[in-house]
Amino acid sequence: MLTTTFEADHEEFVLVRDIEVMSMCEHHLLPFKGVAHVGYIPGTHGRITGLSKLARLVEVYARRPQVQERLTSQIADLLLAKLDARGVIAVLECEHLCMEMRGIRKVGARTVTSAVRGAFQTDGKVRAEAMALINAR
Ligand SMILES: Nc1nc2c(ncn2[C@@H]2O[C@H](COP(=O)(O)OP(=O)(O)OP(=O)(O)O)[C@@H](O)[C@H]2O)c(=O)[nH]1
User: Any stretches that span the bilayer, and where are they (predicted)?
Assistant: First the structure.
């Protein structure tokens, strides 16, 4: 995965927003679905990857029973490792059917999880800029 990378001499933030997520809660084996926002700052080598590969990354980890927190971390960790990126951010917003159609039955409650690595973890300003872009509508 993420074997296609390009030289682009681009060292600024790249973000793909609103990637559809469909996964399965490992507790109840019921779907949870929503969107993922995945971004990174390339390393000093300026190496980037194909945009579709970010969506593929989400897809690979979503296709197994999951908890949303682990799914979010796995996306961030793999991206960081494969791209040798300066920073990575993954934010997921999902609705869990196990909370909607059974149990507490709260329709429309959305769970937001984030995983930040590198510059997004160490620099609050960098993280705030990324969150502003993620939330821009
Ligand atoms: N943190 C987290 N919890 C999840 C996720 N998906 C489902 N859950 C929760 O996992 C918990 C499992 O709780 P249990 O007490 O074992 O199961 P339960 O008796 O069916 O719980 P209720 O859903 O409250 O009826 C529930 O609170 C679910 O809402 C997830 O992605 N992340």
Answer: none
